[in-house]
Write a structure and sequence with these properties.
The protein is mainly β. Helix content is 2%, strand content 58%. The chain has a 14-stranded antiparallel β-barrel. A hairpin with a 2-residue loop joins β8 and β9. It is elongated.
Length: 415
């Protein structure tokens, strides 16, 4: 059932029925440090100091996946639920400012101008089918219902500065439904699993990639609370995936090479605007747009990843596997900020697959992702974007680091 996302043609050579479930527990440790720059608000020393220092987090989240596939004659059908995009973050408070009555907002950490507590995710409900035209060739197609939600709270001033004296709070809570398609081809030149070559494509949401999520924006400036009906405009990428595997004839080992190209360059901005309006802006504008409430400029880049994996089949009931890979980063230094952190990364993983009963398999695995830390001091452009409403944000330059580990436990029942 996992092939519904990666390559639906993989269903075409799955005989019988399969029930699959997975629970992933991911831990994430991250740091962001910022020192006062010429782009920051200037006030008294105590106030300025609350915008300096280091913010940290350590979070653990769970993500489930469920799937089923079934053979109906030569046709194979599948359905699954999973969450390929997103995550959640809750940053630690700044103990040095706990109980600060003069500048109470400072206790939420130096990163608070971009995030204090938030969740951003897009979950898929997928229905797909595959058909083996020959023992060597399978074609697959999948349709996805995308359930998206963005809920995040941050410190904010109406003028986009990090003025501690007037700082307020802003909560965005929006959601929406979208659609996408995926297609794939899987070739087995020898009619068995000794050599497999696959290629797949996942479209952008609504085929054009544009999403419009609806909900509310709540602001608290100077104790005055306002709630506005808003839309959030953003774009998610399409993905091209490829893979090749080779298994020796006695079936005692297998090697795999695979990767993807993800068009994150389509994400130019995440724009919160008055309901029903359009997000049009000029980064160098000296006048403000009445329709834009908040606009986070992204300017992301396309990414690529490549991974290598290998399996050793100790017996017909036991498989051990391991792998490693590299992934590039979508976010340039000019727009990197604590709410969405991404760096070039190296990952390693290992696990096993055991047949516990005649039809029941268990697969535990662990993946560790090592991110290359980044220093964007003096490179951030968020505070230089003119007077456009909502586009100006405090300087996000600083030192960034994070690590992520994922423990997954999967079970499969074959019938």
């Amino acid at each position: 059932a996992t092939s519904l996302y990666y390559n639906p043609a993989g269903l075409g050579f799955a005989d019988g029925g399969h029930l699959y479930g997975d629970l992933s527990l991911a831990w994430r440790s991250a740091k962001f440090s910022h020192q006062h720059s010429s782009l920051d608000w200037t006030g008294d020393a105590a106030a300025m100091g609350s915008n300096e220092g280091e913010g940290t987090l350590f979070n653990v989240i769970a993500s489930p996946m469920f799937g089923v596939s079934y053979q109906l004659g030569e046709l194979r059908l599948g359905a699954a639920f999973f969450t390929p995009f997103g995550g959640a973050a809750r940053w630690n408070t700044n103990d040095a400012h706990e109980g600060d009555k003069t500048y109470p907002g400072a206790q939420d950490g130096v990163q608070r101008w971009y995030t204090i507590d938030g969740e951003l995710r897009s979950s898929f409900v997928s229905l797909g089918a595959a058909y083996p035209l020959t023992p060597e060739l399978s074609l697959g197609l999948v349709g996805n219902l995308i359930i998206s939600k963005v809920e995040t709270v941050r410190a904010r001033n109406a003028d986009g500065s990090n003025n501690v004296v007037t700082e307020g709070r802003s909560l965005v809570d929006v959601s929406g439904l979208d659609f996408s398609l995926g297609a794939g081809v899987l070739v087995r030149p020898y009619g068995d699993d000794s050599l497999r070559v696959g290629l797949s494509y996942q479209s952008r949401p609504n085929f054009g990639g544009h999403q419009r999520l609806s909900g509310t924006l709540s602001n608290n400036f100077g104790g005055i609370v306002s709630v506005t009906d808003v839309d959030l405009e953003q774009d998610l990428p399409d993905v091209i995936r490829w893979g090749v595997s080779f298994r020796n004839r006695p079936q005692t080992w297998e090697v795999r090479l695979f990767g993807d190209y993800t068009r994150w360059g389509v994400l130019g901005y995440q724009c919160v605007l008055k309901k029903g309006k359009d997000c049009t802006f000029d980064l160098d504008a000296n006048t403000s747009s009445p329709d834009i409430v908040q606009n986070q400029y992204r300017d992301w880049h396309d990414t690529a990843s490549v991974r290598f994996g290998a399996s050793y089949f100790a017996s017909p009931s036991v498989e051990y596997f391991a792998g490693g890979g590299y992934a590039s980063s979508a976010i340039p230094a000019t727009t990197l900020e604590p709410a969405l952190m991404d760096f070039p990364s190296i990952s390693v993983s290992a696990g096993a697959r055991w047949r516990l009963l005649q039809s029941l398999y268990l697969m535990p695995s662990y993946t560790q992702v090592f991110y290359l830390s980044r220093d964007t001091t003096g490179l951030s452009k968020h505070a230089t974007y003119g007077a456009q409403t909502g586009t100006v944000s405090p300087d996000s330059g600083g030192k960034y680091s994070q690590d992520i580990g994922v423990l997954s436990v999967s079970a499969e029942f074959v019938f």
